[in-house]
Amino acid sequence: GESVGLHLPTLSVQEGDNSIINCAYSNSASDYFIWYKQESGKGPQFIIDIRSNMDKRQGQRVTVLLNKTVKHLSLQIAATQPGDSAVYFCAENIGGYSTLTFGKGTMLLVSP
Amino acid sequence: DVKVTQSSRYLVKRTGEKVFLECVQDMDHENMFWYRQDPGLGLRLIYFSYDVKMKEKGDIPEGYSVSREKKERFSLILESASTNQTSMYLCASSLSLGHLGETQYFGPGTRLLVL
After folding, report:
1. Distance from C-alpha of B25 to C-alpha of B32, rounded to nearest angstrom
2. Confidence grade of residue A4 (pLDDT, cut at 50, 70, 90)
3. Any CB–CB contact under 8 A between B102 and chain A?
4. Regarding beta strands A106-111 and A10-14, do their DSSP bridges make them parallel or antiparallel, or are they unpaired?
5. pLDDT tens, N- to C-terminus, chain B (115 residues)
6. What letter would DSSP give residue B85?
7. Which of B15, B104, B31, B41 is nearest to A36 (CA)?
8. Does an H or E element contain A14, and which?
9. Which of these, B73, B94, B76, B37, lies nearest to A97 by C-alpha position?
10. Which among A8, A51, A102 has CB closest to B43?
11. Cα angle: B42, vertex B44, B47; to 5 degrees
């Protein structure tokens, strides 16, 4: 079926490699950031979040880094597995508002 | 775990039909959202609701309406479906934390084809 991955930048890695997915956000007033994973035909799934008073946050096999100076967010996935193959996108929020602004996403392809 | 469910995974409708997409969340969340997702365009907000019977337009509300009669349920209505409304529709919910940003939790999506 049609994939949300069409027209997206793609990162291809080998199983076991570390992956880094980048996101440039737009609003210097944004103070909360989320990474989502979306597998083909499914809804986005929360991975990890970070608030602007932090530079780094770690989860299980994932780390999010925030550089407010250059408005850049990255997601690092350690020991990437074939099951990590998906579209990953970031979202930003300005405190006091309920809505999120989403990036277009990056497709991660993991080869066995 | 937050659970957001959508009434249909796939729908096929004809041009001019009235279409209802239903979304239910079981976490007593205040906020609910409807998005459409198209290749190359990402997620675009159609409507959202921050309370029962309240609604706010998102970025692309034209051709859509919504209904929130109960806290757990948020419906998206296409009054007269058109082929350019063929898309993946995603519902999300979030707990209202006031001044703090918060995660939105998504349903599995409804892929709508309008012929």
Report:
1. 9
2. very low
3. yes
4. parallel
5. 669 999 999 999 999 999 999 999 999 999 999 999 998 888 999 999 999 999 999 999 999 999 999 999 999 999 999 999 999 999 999 987 665 678 899 999 999 999 9
6. G
7. B104
8. strand A10-14
9. B94
10. A102
11. 160
